[in-house]
Specification:
Layout (H helix, E strand, L loop, with lengths): L12 E4 L59 E3 H7 L5 H9 L3 E3 L2 E2 L6 E3 L4 E3 L2 E2 L7 E6 L15 H4 L9 E2 L8 E7 L2 H8 L7 E7 L5 H9 L1 E3 L2 E3 L3 E4 L7 E6 L5 H9 L4 E9 L2 E2 L7 E4 L2 H9 L1
Parallel strand pairs: 10-16
Antiparallel strand pairs: 1-18, 2-5, 3-4, 3-6, 6-7, 8-10, 8-18, 9-10, 11-15, 11-16, 12-13, 14-15, 16-17
């Protein structure tokens, strides 16, 4: 599979998501806006004649930038442009929404035309969070040895692997341990994130788990039926032995964004997880996605995901 750098749009498969040696580029390619300078008005000397106006030779006319002009702040953008960049509407339509009081910035209703916001401000339109970036959806087949975090100073992370996938500020949904394998979805779409973190609906994830010993049938049934750990009910959607494999390999489906709950279950039952691999997220699978590679979701995959 060839490597694709940058955001090429939906449906484009990527090459390897990152150099596992850690030599990756973290540049964002965000060029600052150029400031617009003003020009000083030439001073006139003496009283102009009836037919012509002359400038004093003592103070010749010169094109010099005014020091009083404020420079543009590259970290700020007009509110109407911020909203338009999200794809909700045009700038002109955004002005209408602003003037009618449908837009808030950091919890405060803003009706001022030309109001500027910072990129990390919380802007909401009609109660819904507005994201000024292009929405991106990246699926990674995570290898071992990478932490699922956006924090720096944690060694090699999954963000290194998707560094070239998009310029949008994507984050992983859920978590896989450093030595866990499998599918991990990244996005900057809060509606999709909410779908995964909703405890009632959620999105199913299927794991292939290998234990240090055979799983007893009674323990398998206990997990299937659900049980309490420290007063909290632990439940999974499905669990079964894997056909053609030994009894220490199982398939388990659960609506939970993290893998910690799985270790909690088996630790409680006195089993140790040797390997854990997320093989499916909803309808998304690892087909044609080698370990350590990423791809952008196709339009069909995204539409199906939103309907789950």
């Amino acid at each position: 599979m060839s490597r694709h750098q940058g955001d090429k749009g939906s449906g484009k498969s990527s090459g390897k998501g990152g150099d596992t040696s850690g030599n990756n580029s973290y540049s964002k390619n965000n060029a600052p806006l150029k400031s617009k300078g003003g020009f000083s008005k030439p001073a006139s000397s003496g009283k102009p004649s009836d037919s012509t106006k002359s400038y004093s030779s003592a103070k010749p006319f010169s094109l010099t930038k005014s020091s009083s002009v404020n420079k543009s702040n590259p970290n700020e953008v007009r509110l109407n442009k911020y909203i338009a960049n999200s794809g909700i509407c045009s700038r002109r339509e955004a002005d209408v929404h602003i003037s009618t009081g449908l837009v808030t910035v950091n919890g405060k209703v803003i009706t001022e035309m030309g109001y500027k916001v910072k990129l990390d401000d919380e802007v909401r339109y009609d109660g819904a969070r507005v994201n000024p970036e292009k929405k991106a959806y990246v699926l990674l087949n995570k290898p071992k040895g990478f932490a699922t975090t956006t924090s720096e100073g944690k060694g090699r992370t999954v963000m290194d692997l998707v560094a070239n996938a998009t310029t949008s500020r994507i984050k992983p949904i859920g978590r896989l341990g450093r030595n866990s394998l499998g599918l991990l979805l990244f996005t900057n779409d809060e509606a999709v994130m909410e779908k995964f973190t909703n405890s009632k609906n959620g999105v199913s994830r299927l794991f292939h788990i290998q234990l240090d010993k055979n799983l007893k049938l009674e323990d398998l049934k206990k997990i299937q039926e659900g049980f309490k750990i420290e007063g909290k009910l632990v439940a999974v959607e499905e669990i079964s032995y894997i056909d053609g494999a030994s009894k220490n390999e199982i398939g388990l489906k659960i609506k939970n964004t993290g893998s910690t709950i799985l270790r909690t279950i088996f630790d409680y039952l006195k089993y140790e997880i040797v390997s854990l691999d997320c093989v499916a997220i909803g309808h998304l699978t690892k087909k044609d996605l080698p370990r350590g590679h990423w791809k952008h979701l196709t339009e069909q995959e995204l539409n199906t995901l939103k309907m789950l």
